[in-house]
């Protein structure tokens, strides 16, 4: 029974993400990926022009998932500070559930890959930072955040907390989970800035 093109592409990306879950995995070659899938390398290249394109596919999945969830949080939660807290929680939970994707987001899996992939990871970080800024600005206008708070600095602190947690998770070979102490840490970052303390 033949597998549809879209389905096969999804399977290839799924296997790539699975291989990336191996802590400190060596550079993943298309030969190793093809072998794991019991396909020829030529069969892989029928679906993706290059390995960089496979990573692009992973980025598309990550962006679509993360920012759809960000939009849902913003639409459902009127409190800007709570939006920021929920966005951070979602990002850490996403990493915990998708270890291979975490290595892509931190750039760890991209060290020997095409330079433009690092730029793609950086763009996602910028979008996360912008999402935090938007929620925090909303919190100031709605009166739940102290108006003297420097939004750019607080958004940067949240972004760096998320990325630092992802990185620690990858570096610890998945032992130090990103959600460990998460609630306490978010209280420390956001608590001092709110008007209802």
From TrEMBL:
GO MF annotations for this entry?
A: DNA binding
- Coiled coil segments of this chain: none
Q: Where does the source fall among the domains of life? A: Bacteria
Gene3D superfamilies the UniProt entry points to: Tetracycline Repressor, domain 2
DNA-binding positions: 29-48
Positions of the HTH tetR-type domain: 6-66
Keyword annotations: DNA-binding
Amino-acid biosynthesis in keyword set: no
Q: Which SUPFAM superfamilies match?
A: Homeodomain-like (SSF46689), Tetracyclin repressor-like, C-terminal domain (SSF48498)
Pfam families xrefs: SlmA-like_C, TetR_N
The family database entries (InterPro entries) matched by this protein are listed as: Homeodomain-like_sf (IPR009057), HTH-type_Tx_Regulator (IPR050624), HTH_TetR (IPR001647), SlmA-like_C (IPR054580), Tet_transcr_reg_TetR-rel_C_sf (IPR036271)
Report what the protein is called.
Answer: Nucleoid occlusion factor SlmA
Q: What is the source species?
A: Zwartia hollandica
């Amino acid at each position: 029974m033949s597998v549809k093109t879209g389905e096969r592409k999804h399977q290839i990306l799924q296997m790539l993400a699975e291989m990336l879950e191996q802590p400190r995995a060596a550079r993943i070659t298309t030969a190793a990926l093809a072998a794991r899938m019991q396909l020829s390398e030529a069969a892989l290249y029928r679906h993706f022009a290059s390995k960089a394109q496979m990573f692009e596919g992973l980025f598309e999945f990550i962006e679509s998932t993360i920012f759809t969830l960000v939009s849902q949080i913003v639409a459902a939660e009127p409190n800007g500070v709570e939006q920021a807290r929920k966005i951070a929680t979602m990002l850490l939970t996403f990493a915990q559930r998708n270890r291979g994707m975490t290595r892509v987001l931190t750039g760890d899996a991209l060290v020997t890959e095409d330079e433009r992939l690092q730029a793609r990871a950086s763009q996602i970080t910028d979008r996360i930072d912008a999402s935090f800024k938007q929620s925090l600005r909303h919190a100031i206008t709605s009166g739940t955040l102290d108006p003297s708070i420097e939004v750019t600095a607080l958004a940067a602190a949240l972004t760096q907390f998320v990325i630092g947690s992802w990185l620690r998770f990858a570096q610890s070979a998945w032992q130090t989970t990103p959600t460990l102490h998460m609630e306490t840490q978010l209280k420390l970052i956001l608590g001092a800035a709110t008007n209802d303390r």
